[in-house]
Structures are given as C-alpha cells and as structure tokens.
C-alpha cells in the first residue's frame, strides 16, 4: 500500500465515524424517553452560513430537512443568516444567536465555526462543511472529539484519491500549482496532504495563495504561466470565483482538479465528490441527539461521508481534449 494511502487512512481513522453506520440514529433506543416527544417542546436553532454556494446551500438544506423530520416541523424554528464571506459578519451573526439564547447553532463552513466557538462555550455548536476540526479549532492532540461544545460533520474527501485522479487524467503533468485562499486554514491543510501525495509520485508542485478575492486574477495568471495543472482544494473563496478562474485557466489550456463538485463545475475537469446534503442531514440528526436525547456534544465524534464519486466537467474536458476513462460520472447542472 502506498504511503499516501496510509496517511489518508490515518486521517480518516482519527476523524471519522461513518455516516452509514449512523443510520440507526433515526430511531430512539428502546426504553429511552425523548425530550423532543414532550408535548409543546420547541427548539430554536441559529444557522450561520458563510456564503451562498451550492455545496453550502445543500448542507443547510439537509440539516433543516433532518431537523424537521426528527423534531417535527412545528417543533423547530430556524434563524438562517448568510455572512456573505465576511468574518466580522460571522461574528455579529453568532453573537446575535447567543444574545437570543438559541438552543443550538449550526456553523456552515470553517469561519462560521471559528466565530461561533469564540461567541459561546455553552450553547451546542454543530459544524458542517468543515474539512478539519483540529485545524479549525487549534486542537493539537486530536482524538476525533473536541472535548468542548462543538461537534459536527466534515467534508473531507480522500485527498490521496484526488491526486490519483490527477495522475490518471493528466499523466504528462510535470508541475502542479496548488491554488487556495491563505485566509482559509482548512485549505492549507488539504494542500499539504495533496503535496505529500504529489511528492510521493515525484511530481513537482508550488503553492499559489490569494489573501482575498482581489488577488485571485493575478495569482491564477501566475500559476497557469508556470504549471501544467492546478489543484484547488475545498475553498470558499475560490468557490465563489470559479468563473474568473475558468476564464484564465481554460484559454491557457491548464486543467484544474477540484476539491469539490461546485468548484469543478465552475472551472475544473474532475473531482472526487461527496454529498453536502448528506453531511448536513447527518448534522441535523446529531442536533436531535443533543437536544432531544441528551447526547454529550463534547464526546460526539466528528463524522464524515464515506461514499465518494468520481465526477467530471464534460464541457471543460471536451475543450481540453481530455479522455475520461470509465468510472467517472458527468456533473449535471440545472438549466
């Protein structure tokens, strides 16, 4: 087994309890009494979503659907707020949730989680669309649980398998640019894992980081002038600027391997896709376990999706004359 496979397995082992294995959470164990079943018991949940983006939107939708199903639609209310990518807005939103004394906070994306954790040490906080909770929360001795009022679901797909896709689709690539926003700590984490896999395969790489949206054009332009291919990890800043990136990479004929489907559909050729709806839904089930069943959030393992799908952007692959082998599924987009 290649060392990079072992690295991915170690990451998964410490972070993951399989979503599939948690299907039994749909029912309360025999003999237990659910607070959610108490007549008139209602819950308020604040949702802080970092930006409007298909992946994050799907996670929020999945979370709300699970909560409505588990609590009963009339027994749970949501205050959904979008921070428009601004840290100060995330802080304001989460502080308002604390002032309103909500029963639970859903933090959708890393910055939302970090500001929620700064806002309260008492109200349960569930994250979703978070790549690495240890990095996000500054936890050095990661064991799979936070030990504080935070848990949730991760969107980390197997990074070594994403690198395998690059090797499979772009066998002639000699130098790969790693493009991400330097303000997003989880992007740096993914970049390091991808670089370890590239190093093992003897492929040269270089990081290209943008501090914010204003730097994306210049940084991407530099990357395509120096590299044969680009890797973009799951990164909210890049996800919001895929059209700009595509307008630079596609004419330069530099293909992009993406960390998630939304980025791939905007500027990539292929990705290893998870379901953001599913990880959001599982977070909703966790909310029920905490509020209605009395689960201790500090000991709840962070969970991640185990089902992944190889997907490709048909238009970009056709334009770049990239032959996609069997086993890949075309990304479908709504007209």
Word description of this protein:
This protein is of the alpha/beta class and 335 residues long. The protein is 42% helix and 19% strand. It has 13 helices and 13 strands. α3 (87-99) packs across α4, α6 packs across α7 and α10 crosses α11 (261-267). The protein is elongated, with a radius of gyration of 20 Å. Residues 1-37 have low confidence and may be disordered.
Class derived from helix and strand content: alpha/beta
How many beta-strand runs?
A: 13
Shape: elongated
Strand order of the largest sheet: 7-6-8-9-10-12-13
- Oligomeric state as shown: single chain
Strand content: 15-25%
List the helices and strands in order: HEHEHEHEHEHEHEHEHHEHEHEEHE
Radius of gyration: 20 Å
Stretches with pLDDT under 50, minimum 5 residues: 1-37
Mean of residue pLDDT? 89
Largest sheet, described in full? 7 strands, mixed
How far apart are the termini?
43 Å
Quick overview:
By secondary structure, this protein is α/β, with parallel strands linked by helices. It is built from 13 helices and 13 strands.
């Amino acid at each position: 087994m290649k060392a990079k496979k072992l690295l991915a397995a170690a990451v998964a082992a410490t972070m993951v309890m399989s979503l599939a294995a948690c299907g039994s959470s749909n029912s309360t164990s025999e003999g237990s009494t659910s607070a959610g079943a108490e007549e008139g018991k209602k819950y308020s949940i604040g949702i802080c979503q970092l930006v409007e983006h298909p992946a994050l939107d799907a996670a929020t939708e999945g979370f709300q659907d699970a909560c409505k199903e588990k609590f009963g639609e009339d027994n749970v209310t949501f205050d959904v707020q979008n921070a428009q990518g601004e840290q100060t807005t995330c802080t304001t939103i989460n502080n308002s949730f604390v002032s309103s004394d909500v029963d639970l906070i859903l933090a959708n994306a890393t910055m939302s989680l970090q500001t929620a954790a700064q806002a309260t040490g008492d109200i349960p906080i569930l994250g979703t669309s978070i790549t690495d909770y240890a990095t996000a929360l500054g936890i050095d001795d990661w064991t799979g649980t936070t030990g504080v009022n935070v848990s949730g679901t991760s969107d980390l797909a197997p990074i070594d398998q994403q690198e395998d896709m690059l090797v499979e689709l772009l066998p002639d690539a000699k130098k790969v640019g790693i493009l991400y926003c330097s303000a997003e700590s989880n992007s740096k984490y993914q970049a390091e894992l991808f670089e370890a896999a590239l190093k093992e395969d003897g492929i040269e790489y270089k990081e290209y980081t943008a501090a914010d949206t204003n730097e994306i054009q210049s940084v991407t332009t530099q990357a395509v002038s120096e590299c044969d291919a680009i890797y973009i990890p799951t990164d909210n800043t890049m996800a919001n600027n895929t059209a700009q990136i595509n307008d630079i990479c596609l004419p330069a004929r530099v293909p992009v391997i993406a960390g998630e489907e939304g980025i791939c559909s905007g500027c990539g050729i292929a990705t290893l896709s998870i379901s953001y709806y599913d990880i959001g839904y599982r977070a909703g089930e966790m909310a029920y376990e905490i509020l209605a069943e009395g689960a201790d959030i500090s000991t709840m393992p962070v969970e991640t999706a185990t089902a992944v799908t190889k997907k490709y952007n048909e238009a970009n692959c056709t334009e770049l004359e990239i032959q996609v082998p069997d086993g890949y599924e075309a990304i479908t987009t709504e007209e």
